[in-house]
Each structure stands twice: as C-alpha cells, then as structure tokens.
Amino acid sequence: MSNIDTKKAQAIHMLRPEPMEYLQFILPEETAYNSIRQLGQVGMTHFIDLNPRVNPNKREFYKDISRCSDMRRILRFFKSQLDIHNRVPNKAVPEEGYRFTELEETFITMEKTMKDLLLSQTQMNHHKCELLEMKHVLTIGESFLSSAMTDARHGMEMIEKNPAAARAMGVDASQIRGLSFLAGIISQSKIEVFHRMLFVALRGNFVFEYRPVPEPVLDPVTNLPEEKWVFFVFFTGDHARNRIMRICTSYGASLYPYPTTKDEHIQTIADIDNRLETLVTVQARSDEQMEKELDIIQRNVTQWNIFVSRETGIYHSLNMFVVDSEAHCYVGEGWVPKRRMNDVNEALEVATRVSRSAVPAISHVLSSLRTPPSLIETNKFTLAQQKIVSSYGVPSYGEINPGLATLFTFPFLFALMFGDFGHGILFTIISLGLCAFSGLLEKMAQTSDIGRYFHLGRFFLVNMGVMATYVGLLYNEVFSLSVNFFKSGYKVDSVTGSVTRTHTYAFGVDPIWRQCDNYLIFTNSMKMKMSVIVGVLHMILGIFFSLLNFIHRKQWADVWCNFLPKILLLLSLFGYMDFMIIYKWMDPKGNKPMLISTMINMFLGAFQPIPDDTRLYQGQEVVQGILFIVAIVCIVWMMIPKAVIDIVEIQRKKKGAKGFKKTMIRSDSLHASTTEMIDIRPDELTSNVERSDSDSSSYSPYHQRQRKHLEMQPVSMDVVEEPEEEKEVSEVLVHTLIDTIEFVLGAISNTASYLRLWALSLAHGELGEVFYQYLMILIPKLVPVFGSVIGIAAWIGVTFGLIVMMEGLSAFLHCLRLHWVEFQNKFYQAEGYAFAPLSFKSIDYSAELFLPTEYELER
C-alpha cells in the first residue's frame, strides 16, 4: 500500500473506530504459548476473558504470573540500586534467547548476592563510623584529660598532707578516690538538651565537659556526615552511671571505653588504625564486587524487564482462555481489526511452525452479541487531540469520532480567543522549541506529568500558535497594537481632519480604526458577531455528525424524527440570525436594526408589520413568520413522532419475545483435516444454535463438551447472554420530552456560550494594551534614568508569564469546554471502551521506562 493510501485509510479510521471481527482461537497445548507470543508481536488482538467468575488464584497460569511478579519485584530492586549509584540502564538490545526458568534462577542468585553485599557494606560502614568516633574521643580526650588528671593528682596530694583542713572544707578523700567518668560523642544539635537532662537527673552532682570534633563525622545509623561533639561526664556511684547510660541511649549518644593508662591509650589508637586499614581493604573488595554486579545489571536490566513484562502479558492472556482437557487445547476469543486479519492468521501459522506441532493453531470468525472495542489510529501529530477527546469518553463502536474535526476546530477556536500576531509568534516559537527538544521532554516525561503533557501535545501547540498568528493578522493586533502591514484604505486630511476612503484594506482590519473614537465599539461588534457565526456553524457540524451516526446504524427513524427537526430548528432561529448579521455587513447603507430586538419581535409579533426604520429587507414579516412556524413544528416534530415510533417498537418486541437468542457461527476458514486432528468436526461449529438456559441438549457437541468441563462456570464461548432492558411507555415519553427541552434550551444557551470567543479576545487585547501603556510609556516618564530598561524588562516578563502563558491556558480551557459541552453533546455518546490488545510494542515502551504495565495495575 502506498503512503497516500495509508494516510487516507488512517484518516478514515480517525473518523470512526475501525471495523472489528470477533475471532475464536483454538490453540493446541504445545502451540499455545508461541501462538500468544506471535499475536503479541502483531499487537492487534483484544482478548476476551472467558473466565470472569474464576478467582485469579485458581486460573491455569496463576503460578506463572506469580513468578513473573516476583521477577518484576527483583528487577525493581535492581533498578533502585542503579539509581542509588547514579547509573542509567543501557537501552534495550535485540532480544536474546532467554529461558524463563534459567533467568528466574539468575535473578534469585543475583538478588541474594546484592543483598549480602549491601548488608556487608552496611555493617562495615557502621563499624567504620564507630571506630572513627572512638578515635576522635581518644584523640580529644588525650589533651583534655592529661591536664585534668594532673590537677587531680596535685589535689589528692594536698588532701593527704592536710586531712584536717580538707574535712573542714567538706571534702572527703574517699569520695574523690571513687570518682569515675564516661566518654562519648553526640550530635551538636543535642548537646545542650543532653547537658540539661544530665543536670536534672543527677541533681548537679556531676562535672560535664565537651569539645567539638574538628571535622564532620559519619553517623553510624544514618551514614550521613554530621557535626558532633565529644563529651566527658564525671560522677560517683553506680546509680549515677546507670542513669547517665540510659540518658545517652535516649539522646542517641555513643559511649566508648576509655583506657586508664597512657600505654593503653597509645595501643588502643594503634589498634583502631590497623582495624581501619583492614576495613578499607575489605570495603574496596566489596565495592569492586558490587561494581561488577552493577555492570551486569546495567547492561541487561532493560532487556530483562522487557522479557519479563512480555511473559506477564502472555500468561495473563492465556488465563483468559478456557481449557479443553479432552481436546488438549486452549479455546479463547477476541477482537481483531478486519484489516489485520491476515497478519493474525500468519502469526498463528508461524507459531505452528516454531512449535513443530502436527496440530495447527487455528482461528475462525464468530458472530457475537458483544459490543466491539473502539480502535482509533493515531500518530505523533494526532495523538494529543485524540487524548483530549478520550478524556471526555471513548467513542462507541461505529460512532463518529470528534478527534478528526477537533484537529482543525480546536486550534481555530483557540485562535479566536488568543488571536494576536505578536503573541501568536511567541507561542509558535515556544512550541517549536518543545519540538526541537523532544528528546529532553521525553526524558522529563518519565518522571514528570507536566513534561509528559508538553511532550504529548508539542505538535498540537504548534498548530494552535500558527492559527493564533493568522487570526492576529486578521484582527490586525500585534502585541495589542495595530500595524499598517498593507497600505491603509483611508486617507486623512491633516488640515481639515476629514477621512476619505481610497480602497479596501488588503487583509484584516484596517489600522486606521485604532485612531478612531469608536474603535472599541467597532471591534466589539465585529468579534461578537463573528463568535455567533462560528458557534452556530460549529453546532451545525455536530448535528450533521449525528446524521452520519444515524445512517451508519441504519436508524432511519432518527434521521427523520431527530436530525431533520433539530437542524431545521437551529437554522430557523440562529441560522437566520447569522443571515441577518451577514446581510447587515453586506448592506452598509441600509437600516441597522438591533438583532436581539428583531429576534424577540419574531416570536412576539409574527406576521405583524415591521416599521420602515427597523426593516432589514423587503418581505421580512413573511420570512420571519414562516421561520417561527417551522420552529414550532420542529419542536412538536421532535416530541411526538419519535415517541410514537418507540412505543410501537416496544409493543412489537413484547409480542415477539421468545426467550432465546439465535447465534450463527461461521467457520469458512476451518479446514476439515484440522478439525479432525483436534476432535472437532465442521458440523459441530457450523450449526445454527438456538439456546435457552433450560435446554442444554440444543448446544452443539463441541459446546456441550465445553459446558461439561465448565459446570461451575457456564460462560458462552461466542456470545454474551445479556438481558435486554425492557422500556416502559412512560419512560419513552419522559425521555423524549426531556431530550426536546434539553435541545431547545441548549440551542439558546450554547449559542450564548460561544460569546466567550468574543469576551476572551476582548480581554486579551485590552490587557495587552493596558500593560503596554503603563509599562512602556508611563514608567519611562516617571523614572527618567532607568525607566526604559525597567519598563521593557517588566513588559517582557508580563508578556511571557501572564499573557502568553496564563491567557493561553485560559483560552485552552474555554476551548476545551466548547468542544466537550457545546459541540460533542450534539452527536457524541462516548459509551465505548478502548481497544486494549496484547501488544509487545506497548509493553516494551512501558518496560524501557520501568513504568507499571496494565497487568500490574489490574493486580
């Protein structure tokens, strides 16, 4: 297929979801795994769960999925270690011949090795920190205690020489001989509180000395550098010792033994140095081993994650199949786009050859009452606007997708509110910058929602910026000022001040209007009427999309009783108002009646004469009278005929209800030789089956075997037995009445809602003009020296931050509302569900970014 045909097909598939076929897969046991694997490579099979009532832990492949979950947990552990060591996983390489069991054993072995290494490193770091702290205590204590011990010895000698004087002073030599001390280290932030607590606990019967450590010390618990202080507490008695030790434990202070002699002190420091050297050597070897393990993980973790994620998807899909133990096969069902049927069949053939099975994997088309999923093909240019539509709801199968129209209407409505040539160019430049740095945005998208949004909508933003630039040129607004791009169509006499028209301005609004006193009145009138015209055309497009939906579903009653009255009602009211707007523009010399007054008189005074000074054209009374009658007829038309048709249909269904559903199974592609191999005859699959819950003998032999094996879970193999809702006559009447009232009132309110196009455009222009007047003109006058620099800098900041960014966001949100409420409610039901195939492409993308897969989210 050529590129042109491909683009045409993609545009058609964007207009409405792709046609689907419901397939039944019969996979022999030996080919089941390879068949699902090949279908995952194609990525176009949406499997249906045929075991909805079976608990996950009782399904066939529950153990395999549990093993995959354990492997994913180990991979997340590997990835966390790479992040800790600031390593980036290598990109995925072509898949190697991994074996699930061998890889699982490798993961378990590597996880144990990594955890052992981490535990060993943690213990060594803790021990190293303790040794360093102890060394600081001994080093600082050596200088401090040497002088203190000397003073103590002199004091004892004096007391022993003159004991009477010592007793007179209240000093007991026996207490001094029993003086003890504890040495330790504590965080700087806790030293004062620690001191006060000791004072309270010991009632002041202690001596507390502390010195700062000259450099930050690694904490043994947190392994972070911290400012610490060495302290010494002098006391007497075992009771005081116990209290001090409990307080040290409470405040995280570390106590260390202090040698009693100088020789022991020197020997202890030497032992600490030797132990530190040994620790450094052992840590180097441990780090080297850790680096080797991390090198292996860095090279392979991405590909491992892809492999395990694929295995999870395969076994998750196989769990949706029903096991036929007699035929030794797995039977499953799923949706496949019609245009990819050949690819699916080729995938099954490849799986049969790879498995070297004598029994091929087969598929055939079934007729099903299930609602097909909705598949909308997108690319990087159309993905953003489709995401906007899907945020409202997924298109129903066969329904018109608003995404294709939104691709054009969204930027245009945004431009009507944001239209400014200068601001539009800035918006476009920023958007082009996002496209140029898409690689950086893609990396940001892995960790940031904002980065993901900008990466997703970068091309859509370019489209919006270009359209805003175009509409700004149409408005002739450049940073909220007018520029004479082309020669003005008016000539002003400098003496008399008279204005003479010479020609028509080439494009957009003539800049001469900016100099007129009625400039604001003129632009308000122009933008307001333009917003009404655009809004009515937008709603008419939505109503015509509803016509396409009715024709596609062959709902001819809705064509005549829903589309026709709605389009005629909208045209007779607001289509006529648009006609009067255009007529007044084209006839500048005629009367200029107020549009609101004319519309009110159209209803209050139909067919009554219109005064000449308010008449717009000849025959206006007759035209407005006819349109008034058409509007009334359309309201009645929407209420009565459709309700009558629905009531008649309900009565017909009640009379013809038989309590069973008829299903036709087609198996044109099922070969007789294949069915004989798996013990299924063609006549077992091509019979017309009239089913009822009470008569199991009416099932075909194949389905009887399936029912026998699944007595605990009677699920139809090809259809969903969904009870049809019976509507009452009163419900039909109420629904029709509400729908009519909602459309009539909605037509008025929705048209008024489009006036936000005018309001935001007016606010945008006036805000820009005010900032220009104050920042670029007033500030330079008030501040003569640096006023121009300050004004220009402030104006640039306000233009980027407030007008381009904030006003752009405001216009985006208002435009989003116009599409979701005013446009899509005319035709868009959004009651579908997304096509979710087993796709290795999608799985690989999530696995490369280490994002949770859809199967993990379900769990």
From TrEMBL:
<keyword id="KW-0406">Ion transport</keyword>
<feature type="compositionally biased region" description="Basic and acidic residues">
    <location>
        <begin position="683"/>
        <end position="694"/>
    </location>
</feature>
<feature type="transmembrane region" description="Helical">
    <location>
        <begin position="532"/>
        <end position="551"/>
    </location>
</feature>
<comment type="function">
    <text>Essential component of the vacuolar proton pump (V-ATPase), a multimeric enzyme that catalyzes the translocation of protons across the membranes. Required for assembly and activity of the V-ATPase.</text>
</comment>
<keyword id="KW-0812">Transmembrane</keyword>
<dbReference type="InterPro" id="IPR002490">
    <property type="entry name" value="V-ATPase_116kDa_su"/>
</dbReference>
<keyword id="KW-0472">Membrane</keyword>
<keyword id="KW-0375">Hydrogen ion transport</keyword>
<keyword id="KW-0813">Transport</keyword>
<feature type="region of interest" description="Disordered">
    <location>
        <begin position="683"/>
        <end position="707"/>
    </location>
</feature>
<keyword id="KW-1133">Transmembrane helix</keyword>
<feature type="transmembrane region" description="Helical">
    <location>
        <begin position="563"/>
        <end position="582"/>
    </location>
</feature>
<feature type="transmembrane region" description="Helical">
    <location>
        <begin position="425"/>
        <end position="441"/>
    </location>
</feature>
<comment type="similarity">
    <text>Belongs to the V-ATPase 116 kDa subunit family.</text>
</comment>
<protein>
    <recommendedName>
        <fullName>V-type proton ATPase subunit a</fullName>
    </recommendedName>
</protein>
<dbReference type="InterPro" id="IPR026028">
    <property type="entry name" value="V-type_ATPase_116kDa_su_euka"/>
</dbReference>
<feature type="transmembrane region" description="Helical">
    <location>
        <begin position="453"/>
        <end position="475"/>
    </location>
</feature>
<feature type="transmembrane region" description="Helical">
    <location>
        <begin position="782"/>
        <end position="806"/>
    </location>
</feature>
<feature type="transmembrane region" description="Helical">
    <location>
        <begin position="622"/>
        <end position="645"/>
    </location>
</feature>
<dbReference type="Pfam" id="PF01496">
    <property type="entry name" value="V_ATPase_I"/>
</dbReference>
